[in-house]
Amino acid sequence: MAEATLKTVPLDRTRVLRWLQTYGVYAGVALLLVVNIVITPHFLSAENFRTQAVQVAPVIIVALGMALVIGTEGVDLSVGAVMALAASVTALYLGYGLLPALLVVAVFAAGAGLANGALVAFVGVQPIVATLALMVGGRGLALVLLPQLEDLRNPALASLGSGDVLGVPYLILIAAVLALLVAFVVRRTTFGRQLLAIGDSRPAAQLAGLPVRRVLIVVYVVCALLAAVAGVLATARLQASDPTSLGNLMELSAITAVVVGGTPLTGGRVNIAGTVAGAVLIQLLTATLIKHDLPPSWTQIAQAIVIVCAVYAARGRGKR
Amino acid sequence: MRGFPLPIHLFSVTRIGVTMQRTTHRSRLLARPVAVALAAAVALTASSCAKSEDDASGDKKPSAAADAGQKVVTPKPGSKTCTIEAYGGKKIDLEDATVGFSQSEKEANPFRIAETQSIKDEAARRGVKLLTANAQSQFSKQISDVQDLLAKGADLLVIAPLNSDGWDPVLQAAAAKKVPIVTIDRKINATACKDYVSFIASDFVEQGRRAADQMIEATGGKGEVAILLGSAGNNVTTERTKGFKERVAEKAPGLKVVFEQTGDFTREKGQQVTEQLIQSKPGIKGIYAENDEMGLGAVAALKGAGKKAGDVKIVTVDGTRNAVQGVVDGWISGVIESNPRFGPLAFQTLDTFTQGKEVPQDIVIQDSAYDADNAEQDLGKAY
Questions:
Q1: Which of A35, A312, B11, B83 is the most exposed, having the fewest neighbouring CB atoms within 10 Å of its CB?
Q2: Which of A120, A123, A152, A212 to mutate to test the interface with B (most CBs of B within 10 A)?
Q3: Residues A181-216 pLDDT 10s
Q4: Whether B176 and B322 share a structural domain
Q5: Rounded to an integer, what distance in angstroms lies between the CA atom of residue A80 and that of residue A234?
Q6: Cα Rg for chain B, rounded, in angstroms?
Q7: Do A207 and B266 touch (CB under 8 A)?
């Protein structure tokens, strides 16, 4: 149907908007790279790219989970709180060693995801409200468990945060593997198809006999687990557990990355490569402004402009 | 209906609908008690079998003996004072009085923990009955907290205000009962010696100046330095920046501030911003962090970039134990203290005042400093 309209009414603007929505984020990344290579001293170095990648890795990991949730026409506001929860639980159980601590973190995160998913799938609460509860409560719980910042000296945790394989830090490897995995799940598995079908129309998916509630719960659990991975990695990098500030406003960064990457908030479509590029775009933008010592308020304004552009491009698609 | 020619589908759909409704109903009924019980159970189990790294050593609590107390900076001649006649109260003996203390933020950071502890310790030392309340960073709660303290019979009040404005209801209630108020660490926008007695705090501009002195000494007064700013729109940030820049301009024109970015007073942001900084400006000689946490983040960033201790001089403000340990280890050149131990000074002021003698309206605490010479022996004084 869309093709027919395009053929009969050759609207250039529509075509430009469609192009922008699919490729705009990559164009943005490329543009920022070129600009920085020209104007930023010491930008073209392996060390610099390593830093940007390491800083963006936790955002990408959280954004992957967020993309899945948004694909079901939901949203998860509790990811930052789950990161904080993961940080404080890591600190609490590190005495047993890294692996047992990580298992306990996984249990807590799965519990958080289960609570979100159950509220959305069974009780029928709107995702934004259901996850808002845990956004507030999760950080509260994290602070009850660990009231203030605690330094961590576990060598295994430290190497997770700063170690590398052939010069590529673990953080980047983990983010890359997770991104490929999530992209595979969305494109090539039944689960991925079901997820998108639910996002397109939940009543239709239900009528078609899809396991709607099971898929929803799994999606929210996966999102919480990914947030917990990001929380543990950020903690490992800092070598301190800081539940007061870790993951603050992370939900917004993740949603921004997903939306800028071309995934519509209306669900039914997930663009994983775009999500990764969206996170990279915001990271490069922030880095550019910081490296040139522009006032921090500019970063927020620049981010807002990028979001508005992305939403404008997305609007064109919705109107076809 | 059009999409479903088979009746069996219709049947299954209705079944789903019914079960959903039932679950909804049941969950709503159970939701509250279950959630509460669940949260309690989670908190209990999590803390009962937890085992953090520090369980064995257990040396985290600063000893009471290490409490350095405070000295007052000698007031400038001609500074305003306040007496009980001018304020309009009646003389009481502090030992028989009840003191109410209202803390602003939750005790989740070393500064607030040390502040509350200092008030409690001093009250215990003097044998004064103390009532405490914590507003958990909510201003409306702090207002009702103070009103509660008044209702519970506090004769004197020590307040660590969350905001400077909006205190009228409390001040009126206190004035009606003639209860003297001392505010600590932040000021209330009201008339001294009428609405409250004295204000005790650090001089943040002076802290910035002293940090600049340390930076000048560490770098030799030449080169490029960066500032990790605190949260935007915070008076601590602006005043610590102002003092630092003033002193650098006046004493070391060779030292240039080439980078000012906010680290939001957190370690994580301090680390991220420093990582960007050392890549774009590899020649940076010093970093002034406006609190310890950002300074420690900068240390983490330098370590991650393979720098050695002392390659980049770091000066921070606050005086927490971790930062002073950083001075001992050689990563931080100097720490300017922001003294949280208001207890002795607050009670001394109240004592003097209630005996009918005059007290200054603005009292500035003496902040100490840590550098390579005294960090090791004074580590116990850090909070």
A1: B11
A2: A123
A3: 999 999 999 999 999 999 999 999 999 999 999 999
A4: no
A5: 12
A6: 27
A7: no
